[in-house]
Amino acid sequence: MYNAFFKTDGAERVKIPPIDYLIIFAAVTIWGGSFASTKYALGQAEPILVIWLRLLTGMPVLLAGVIADKSLRMPKKEEFWPLLIMGFQGILFHQGIQSYAMETAGAANANWMMVASPALVALLGWIFLKNEFLFPDYSGYRCRS
Fold this sequence. Notes:
With 145 residues, the chain is mostly helical. The chain has helices at 18-42, 47-68, 80-104, 107-115, 117-128, 135-144; strands spanning 6-9, 12-15. It has two domains: 1-104, no CATH class; 106-145. It contains six helices and two strands, in the order E-E-H-H-H-H-H-H. It starts with 5 loop residues before the first strand and ends with a helix.
């Protein structure tokens, strides 16, 4: 069962601390502001430079997070290729589409293009990988779009 103020952890319900809501709010605010800042940066530089700058500014933040979480380690041999593919898709491909879309469209239109990505990924997974596509999942994608 899901409740906005509780999460289930096996059989017991755990109260979500208010700081978690502040963290979520901060993440959404930063993510939303990144569209406008990317649009501004594209007026000053080429898309590939904006992508690299976003990557280089994000790496110290991620490094600080894994150090604080005490989960910093080298990937295992079997984790290397999946991590490389996810990194390519998440940074170069996703940010590349966003940057090049914003070069020809406004930030709002580019935002709509990027919001459609998860639904497209789910649809491709359903077609090619035969993943289940359940109604609650679909309704979540529709709410996001």
